[in-house]
Description:
Elements: E1 8-12, H1 13-26, E2 31-32, H2 37-41, H3 45-54, E3 59-62, H4 65-74, E4 82-85, H5 94-99, E5 102-106, H6 109-120, E6 126-130, H7 142-151, H8 153-156, E7 159-164, H9 176-189, E8 196-198, H10 202-205, E9 215-216, E10 239-251, E11 269-274, E12 291-294, E13 297-304, E14 309-312, E15 323-327, H11 333-339, H12 344-349, E16 356-360
Parallel strand pairs: 1-16, 2-9, 3-4, 4-5, 5-6, 6-7, 7-8
Antiparallel strand pairs: 1-10, 10-11, 10-15, 11-14, 12-13, 13-14
Helix pairs in contact: 1-3, 3-4
Bound molecules: pyridoxal-5'-phosphate (PLP).
Amino acid sequence: MNAGFAARLGIDLDALAHNHAVLTRAAGAAEIAPVLKADGYGLGSGPVARRLWAQGARRFFVARLAEGVALRAELTPARPATIYVLDGLTDGSGPRLAAADLVPVLCSLPQVNAAAAFARSGGPSRVGLHIDTGMCRQGLAPEEAHALIQAGDALDALDIELLMSHLGSAADGQSPRNASQLARFSEVRGLFPKARASLAASAGIYLGADYHFDMVRPGISLFGGGPLEHPHPDIHAVAALSAPILDIRNLRPGDILGYGESIMIETPTRVAIVAAGYADGVIRAVKGRGYAWFAGARRRLIVANMDVLVVELGDTPAHIGQMVELLGSGALLDDQAQAAGTVAHEVLVRLSRRAERIYLGEA
Length: 363
Ligand SMILES: *Cc1c(COP(=O)(O)O)cnc(C)c1O
């Protein structure tokens, strides 16, 4: 404790490797192409990418050009890998994509035309193509893909090595939207027989083999989120946020806790004041619904301020300096996300740099 009391973020690369193996089994013959956007879901794309490369991953996805440039610095010629940029070819980004050997996933007709012009002027011809099969967010409509094939000229300049789409309701296995997106994707795929095809992210992997195609793109389940937005028994926690107890207090009936006057104490309540807060990434909205994990049990998280949390202890023995888990194998990512009214992805990307980071396992 020489560094003083502080929240600690453990990032378990062995758990990451375990989740990669679980998803590899679930995806059958399809290749696992990890999605490392937003700095590897906030956990550090460098160590994460190096470990996933060691586990056999050779194709990766990021959202932004800058994320691709940062990832390329890790995946140097000693670790050859393809990096796809989901934003595609945005205005003037061609030379920077090419310099870092990044493959844009083109997601509109103007992008296709810009990529063709760039290729004709000596730029790289390797691209991916995003098809909108019903998420209505990014990608060419199937009719646009047909028109592109018919016109021919833009495609002559391009080597479309990846054809992909993204599912909007994959976490709901009952949604008819899944089959509808699958049918549209399969139909367009017939137009691009040489491209590798990819439809599923973490949740889509669990829709079954029809959804796997050549390559799947998991993000959240590599990082400990259940594919179906609730904890999955085989997926292990990768991020573990914990913080020490600063003080233990006994609140009395009539006490008003923290800011505002919304939390009036009604019965004697023994609480731990914990040295973490939303400045470390604990989402403020979990108050009253989220929990911390301490001495082998769930403890109600009553308040989340910027720097301190108030956690109900009951009569459990506790002392100052003892660590309380806020995220990990006891305080589960999906449960905390649900308590905060959000998804596991957002909980991870909000983890801040104030929490001291400790990587466990080999990068
Ligand atoms: C973020 C993203 C993924 C990964 O999704 P998860 O739910 O984290 O597995 C895959 N594909 C695309 C296009 C994405 O934007």
